[in-house]
Design a protein that fits this description.
CATH topology: Chorismate Mutase Domain, subunit A
Shape: flat
Number of helices: 3
Order of helices and strands: HHH
CATH architecture: Up-down Bundle
Mean pLDDT: 95
Number of strands: 0
Number of domains: 1
Length: 93
Amino acid sequence: MELKDYRAQIDRIDAEMIRLFAERMELSARIAAYKKAHGLAVQDPLREQEKLYAVRKGLPAPLQEYGARWYEQLFAISRRYQRALLDGNGGVE
């Protein structure tokens, strides 16, 4: 297989990840509205720890910490987006 073939596969995966990211962020916005309506905090450390455990468990050993770091960044982005929505600035910080 040539480099261009590998890159084409990466591009296909990236397009799917972008679609899934947008879907996840839409759900994050809905969660923010739910949390606001129910007086809940944006951050839920227990939920994040449970998710990190599941991420690590679902990956082969060499990728576990990389996957956990990726999800930590995803959590931070989701929290930032939720806070921006709750502050009323349309999700832009």
